[in-house]
Design brief:
This protein is mainly beta. Helix content is 7%, strand content 52%.
Length: 459
């Protein structure tokens, strides 16, 4: 949501409330302004639909690429009731890190389906190049005044992928006081997610089986090239023995408390505290760990296992200040959980008008996190298998930054068009693990570089 710097501070307040509500993954409850009157002409104008659309492309070097299209619609009714609708469609393709460690020799892995295999060259981070997914997400939110100074909101969420279904509900209550210069809000959300991954859910620390192949039958259903059906059947049986036959799910319950304060006509601040409880299947069915000997050579590959619950807490502070022309937006977020992960996020934007109808907005974001207490880049064969372990670099120690710029303009019809281009770099780090033998000669903590491009149009 973009700021119009010609307007009063209430528009800054609405934008800030929207950004904060995003912490719960919900659409916003936008607090009323200091100007609480609505003329008939204004009410008639607000009864029309407003649309925002965007297309985003994200691409990691030699890894995952994502394309996302979003369209949202908002209708404001005469009695200040607001309906928000949002449709998101995204597609992911490319190669995803499996968690297995790089080796000085070629490695062969079974695909997640069990049908077929792929290889990783010596010294390279193992990547599953069959990663592909399409997601469709729908959100609907209804906001309305409940009483003087009270605004309520409720919404529903639906997200579907071929192996994943997410359903959610949320609610928010906001109270304005101090001549509507202060707002206190509380939000609740609940999500139920169901997993049915390709190939089934692997058993915790099960050994990766050899691949089988069901794709070599001719048009009559006969095996080509003399395939041994007995051997192939045994391979499928071995693969199924490492899998569960059921699906699994997880639930997420969130609560957020927020406080917004208009300091003066140029400055506004907001503070949030959020608490999140996640229960259920939290492992990644496509991630594994290398089991290595004393020389650092992989002897086996075991599927990961994470705890079945996680509690996350965070505090968030944001300030926007409107200079004579420019607007600066700075925020800080601190998150901690019972997996021993804590993170710091600093995000800053500076909007600089170029003319009455255009602006440029540099953006810088820095992120740093510690590793989960069960994160291990590999497992040593000489040690007992722990209760929980994962080599997923996303829960390891890391730092990351985003650097980019946005250019926006107002078209002759009053519509808005903007372009955004950003560079993202993620640097995983060693959290104190001693790499034996061959592992000391390879890059266990490979950096990830990505480009983000986005075009947005509001009408």
């Amino acid at each position: 949501m973009q700021l119009n710097h010609k307007k009063a501070p209430i528009n800054i307040k609405a934008a800030l409330t929207l950004a904060t509500s995003a912490l719960l993954g919900t659409l916003p409850v936008i607090a009323n302004a200091a100007d609480e009157t609505t003329t008939p002409a204004k009410a008639q104008q607000e009864s029309s639909w407003d649309f925002e659309s965007a297309f985003l492309y994200y691409s990691e070097s030699d890894r995952v690429s994502a394309a996302e299209a979003v369209i949202s619609a908002q209708k404001t009714f005469e009695n200040e009731e607001v309906l928000n609708l949002k449709l998101t469609i995204d597609s992911l393709t490319g190669a995803s890190a499996t968690g297995a460690a790089a080796q000085p020799n070629v490695q062969t892995f079974t695909r997640p389906s069990g049908e077929g295999s792929y290889q990783t060259q010596a010294g390279k981070t193992p990547l599953d190049d069959t990663f592909k997914d399409t997601r469709v997400q729908l959100n609907a939110q209804w906001t309305q005044p409940l009483a003087e100074n009270y605004t309520g909101s409720a919404g529903v969420h639906l997200s579907k992928e071929y192996d994943y279904l997410s359903l959610g509900v949320n609610g928010n209550l906001a109270y304005d006081f101090n001549n509507k210069n202060s707002t206190f809000s509380v939000g609740l959300s609940y999500f139920q997610d169901t997993f049915t991954p390709e190939g089934g859910i692997p058993l915790a620390f099960a050994s990766m089986p050899l691949a089988y192949d069901d794709d070599d039958d001719d048009e009559y259903g006969n095996d080509e090239e003399g395939e041994d059906e007995t051997v192939n059947s045994a391979g499928k049986t071995a693969f199924n023995a490492t899998r569960r036959t059921d699906s699994d799910d997880k639930t997420t319950a969130d609560i957020m408390f927020g406080f917004t304060q208009v300091i003066n006509r140029r400055m506004i601040t907001q503070f949030n505290y959020s608490y999140s409880k996640v229960d259920g299947y939290l492992s990644d069915p496509f991630k594994m760990l290398s089991l290595v000997n004393s020389e650092g050579i992989a002897q086996d590959y075991l599927y990961e296992n994470r705890p079945d619950s996680r509690v996350k807490q965070s505090v968030f502070a944001q300030t926007k200040y409107h200079f004579e022309q420019n607007v600066i937006d700075i925020s800080y977020r601190y998150m901690w959980d019972d997996w021993a992960i804590d993170s710091h996020t600093i995000d800053s934007r500076l909007r600089i008008p170029l003319s009455r109808n255009s602006y440029i907005e540099p953006h810088f974001r820095f992120y740093q996190q510690s590793a989960a207490d069960f994160y291990q880049p590999f497992l040593a064969k000489s040690n007992a298998v722990p209760e929980f372990a994962s080599a997923d670099y996303r829960i390891g120690e890391m730092s990351a930054y985003t650097l980019g710029v946005k250019y926006g303009m107002k078209l002759s019809g009053g519509n808005d068009l903007s372009f955004r281009l950003e560079y993202y770099r993620q640097d995983p780090k060693n959290s104190g693990v001693q790499a034996p033998g061959a592992l000391a000669e390879v890059d266990l903590y490979e950096s990830v570089d990505a480009i983000i491009a986005q075009v947005s149009y509001s009408f």
